[in-house]
Amino acid sequence: MIKQITSAANPLIKQIRALERKRTRSETGLFVAEGARLVLEAEAAAVQPETLLFTAEARQRQAVTALVERFDRSGVQCIETSERLLSQITRRENTQNVVAVYRQRRQSLRALDATSHRLWVALEEVRDPGNLGTILRTADSVGAGGVILLGRCCDPFSFECVRASMGSIFAVALAEAELSELQTWSQAAGGAIIGTSLRARGRHDALPSQSGPRIVMMGNEQAGLSAEAEAACDHLVRIPMRGQADSLNLAVATAVMLYSLWGAEGYPGARP
Ligand code: SAM
Q: Which Pfam families does this entry report, sorted A to Z (predicted)?
């Protein structure tokens, strides 16, 4: 049954607004995604929201009408509300007129089969949610198995990260792990950890061919990879640089690495 809520004092709206805070997201295990496109992408990845909120105007669009009907039938809490309340939830003036609340999905590394994919990404202490979201999107674009977070990383379920991922947060597996676990996981699958560092000698496009999975490991935006992380790598490579910049942005460097490794195999699985 579709409910209508127009008051900012409604307890459900208050709870959803509180998901802006990391603490509330951690406590509830929920997060917010904005826009009908993202909700449709989640649905394509077989992920349903707990709650769907939309304006009366959005509901006039055929795709949204059909979405609301499908979700309502399958027990998702569907709420028609005002643009003003959606703006309060998303903290944006020109907000999307469809917003959904999802349950966070994190996997343990043990639950992921390293041999199921040729490429994986490991990020040590990534701090910028825009970078993390962009990396999720890029990992999805090359068909990587997932993104593994090492150490104290930013929250993948923050508004900014979810926005930057453009729906890929629903398509790519996310795991948190210790460095030693990652090494064991990679070794058990006959994989190779490829670390990236400005101090490396080897070039990113001169890696030996490898039959097992490749885990591309990227460092923190300021400090780069820690000495322990570098020591855990099977290969350490750098992307050539010239000009004034001393390094590439983390998300850009990840894209260079992933496309280089995928491209070296002739882009298997790419859309025609
Ligand atoms: N000052 C940091 C350092 O000395 O490593 C720079 C960090 S950089 C902004 C963030 C991450 O992007 C690095 O840890 C590395 O993983 C990757 N990266 C950026 N540029 C790179 C390059 N030219 N070669 C290899 N990795 C690079």
A: MRM3-like_sub_bind (PF22435), SpoU_methylase (PF00588)
